[in-house]
Amino acid sequence: MKQTRKQSSQLGAEPACQVRVPGSITSCALSRKPLVLSVIVPGAKKCEGQLDVFQRMAASHPRAQFAAVVSGGKHKKVAALTRQHGWTFPVAVDRDLSVFNLYRVAVCPTTVFAFPGGKVQSTSIKPLSEAQVAAGLRAVGGA
Questions:
Q1: What are the Cα distances from residue 100, in Å, to 5, 85, 91, 105, 131?
Q2: Contact (Cβ atoms closer than 8 angstroms) between residue 41 and residue 71
């Protein structure tokens, strides 16, 4: 049975971008600016190193949003990793690997550059230098 907008609102349904859950990251929040997103595995030095590059660049690129998705970890472990490295951008935990599976991520780090609104401009499956990240940012209007 198809629900109308009125029926959905009567059931307490809210549009996804209006849902606010403390400590959560939504695609709505990430799509307001040009985005650099890496999907990584914890413990892999080259993957964690990619996020260290993001941290060094974030302050000098305020028009862009940096973010990461960490696979399979527990929240406490990923929070500790985030504190250890000093990452201040959003870091999400993909506990059941649904994001990895949805996007068929097989290589760490997988980094995506997207325009505001979420349209992907390019994807890389290797660690990127600051110069390469800056070039990707220029391509999506975040530099």
A1: 32, 22, 14, 5, 26
A2: yes
Q: Residue 98 pairs with which residues in a beta bridge?
A: none
Rounded CA separation 76/35 (Å): 25
Under DSSP, is residue 62 helix (H, G, I), strand (E, B) or coil?
coil
Q: Residue 30 carries which side chain, given as an amino acid letter?
A: L
> pTM for the whole thing?
0.80
Read off the tokens for 31.
């799509």
Could you tell me if 40 and 119 are in contact, meaning their C-beta atoms sit under 8 angstroms apart? no
Q: Do residues 89 and 58 touch, judged by C-beta distance below 8 A?
A: yes
Q: Of 29 and 94, which is predicted with more confidence?
A: 94
What pLDDT was estimated at residue 54?
96
The pLDDT of residue 124 is above 60: yes
User: Tell me, what's the pLDDT at 52?
Assistant: 97
Q: What Cα–Cα distance (Å) separates residue 19 from each residue in 16, 25, 42, 128, 137? A: 5, 10, 28, 33, 29
